[in-house]
């Protein structure tokens, strides 16, 4: 108990010091630009590959920027306070998974890319520890040159980056039963480039492929077209579906407030902390959601894009299959499920369940991941 309290105090103090540094940087910066601290919420820019970081450009005063920072800072302080709880709960996972892998997942809980990885690990019954990363200072991953999440550490010395690479590597390992994880990871080389906005990005070759022998490929994909279909929809989840989340959960001021009310309620904020985290945080994300809507050419009513995407997914599965993988989920099922479930508890999720045909499939996915029904 004493150790837990000390740990909590140290982390809260560290967060406070970090917030002071950020605040000073903002006050010293140009008043026309404020970098949003809320990009962690529901996956905005949390991971590599398709994940992007978004800056909120505000033409107002420094006071507005400070208000945004205050709301975000209080939310981050809450993260620090609960970090010790998350670490303790992570001990419920066994330390060693099947075939001797020791797994540690560095994540943001509400990030859809991180949720994809958890869905895969849970479905296959792979044990893992969780480390929740502070989204501003990211001290938990300061040892890593790769500064995004998710990161999966294998046996404490092999680092896997990018949610899709993590899943493809682990699946290849589980199916092959012969190759070493380090050998498999070498089949997904990094490619560094500069995107159209002049930002350095890292992509990975072959990331939607499983690295299997011909015999193992036949075992994993017994029917013609299964592999191609799986790859197509995994990429669709990364390139399209994930970009519908933030515009929908922060679609209106009311929904933005409800989203942050949920965060505050779950985090047991005090009344003062909760006020700023809820109202200032909601205002920030409402503005960002509008920018994302424009960025991805979404309709005025972004719900319609969400409904269409989900119904397209259900139509692709068809009426004769329980999952896209047939009687059992495949990697596309797990990817889509991982992205959608970060909306649970919010109006966008309820509307999706009521206005699309996804309900039965989604419920089957909940059962499959909860009960660890996958091979391992």
Topology:
Layout: H1 2-28, E1 33-34, E2 56-57, H2 62-90, E3 103-107, H3 112-123, E4 129-132, E5 151-154, E6 158-161, H4 163-176, H5 181-185, E7 190-194, E8 200-204, H6 214-220, H7 226-239, H8 245-249, H9 253-267, H10 271-295, H11 302-317, H12 331-340, H13 347-355, H14 359-370
Parallel strand pairs: 3-4
Antiparallel strand pairs: 1-2, 3-5, 5-6, 7-8
Any key phrases for this structure?
4-stranded mixed sheet, 14 helices, disordered N terminus, alpha+beta, globular
Could you tell me the radius of gyration in angstroms? Answer: 21 Å
**Unreliable parts:** 1-39, 47-97
Strand arrangement, major sheet: 4-3-5-6
| Fraction of helical residues | 40-55%
What is the number of E strands? 8
Average pLDDT, all residues? 77
In terms of quaternary structure, the protein is: single chain
Describe this structure in words.
Residues 1-39 and 47-97 have low confidence and may be disordered. The relative contact order is 0.12. The protein starts with a helix and ends in a 6-residue tail after the last helix. A four-stranded mixed β-sheet has the order 4-3-5-6. Strands 1-2 form a two-stranded antiparallel sheet. The longest helix has 29 residues, at 62-90. The protein has 376 residues and is an alpha+beta fold. 53% of the residues lie in helices and 8% in strands. It has helices spanning 2-28, 62-90, 112-123, 163-176, 181-185, 214-220, 226-239, 245-249, 253-267, 271-295, 302-317, 331-340, 347-355, 359-370, and strands spanning 33-34, 56-57, 103-107, 129-132, 151-154, 158-161, 190-194, 200-204.
